[in-house]
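Re: the request from the purification team.
They wanted to know what the chain is likely to look like in 3D before they choose a buffer screen. I agreed to run a prediction and write the result into the notebook, where they can find it.
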Amino acid sequence: MKIKLVAVWLLLFPFLLAVAQEPDPIIKSEIKRVIVYKEGAQIIREVEKTVLKGTQTLIFGGLPDNLNPDNFQLKVAGKVSVLSISHFNSNERKQKNDAEIKVIELQTADLSTKINRLTALQNVYLQEQSMLFENKNISATENGISVAELAAITKVYRERLNDISGKLLDIDQEVVQLNKKITEFQIQLADIKLKHAKSETQTEVIIDAESASTVKFMLSYIIADAGWN
């Protein structure tokens, strides 16, 4: 048993490692202090973030689109080494975002196709159900059917109607789940489009942490279009 568990862990470890190294969503910081000079102003932002042990990539967003990398500073309160800092405009990732949007749209269309097929199947069952209801009133005297034969026919009708009712219920439940997934995709799609409707600077920071912990990051930069009148 232990050998099997070790084997499974060895198979899963590369996958888990890859997941752990995936960049987190965009990190938003809060403005804590503003120092206004005669020309320009210094903005100081802070945010606390839980980091994992080892090397990882963090992306800080919400920075002005005209950020000058030359006057950007990053301070870290914790046992973390900053390996590299790079800046890019959010629109520079438009191609990646367009590809992601295309995938979501294809997935949504696929789900809609499944719903249409289920709806068509549902209509077939409903038509059969209607036919069974119309033909269930069989008269033994009018058709020369014995009581035993009538009971057998009634049983077949009952079993088939029960089967159809179960299938219709299954279809309803599946359609509800598919619509729920479509709604999730639509929300995700709207979120992506909203985030990238506005241009901003995003700062990618690669760090190496000695251990898993909560770390405070302090971002500082100068904006030129501010100052004393």
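For the purification team: The longest helix spans residues 147-195.
Please add any questions underneath this entry.
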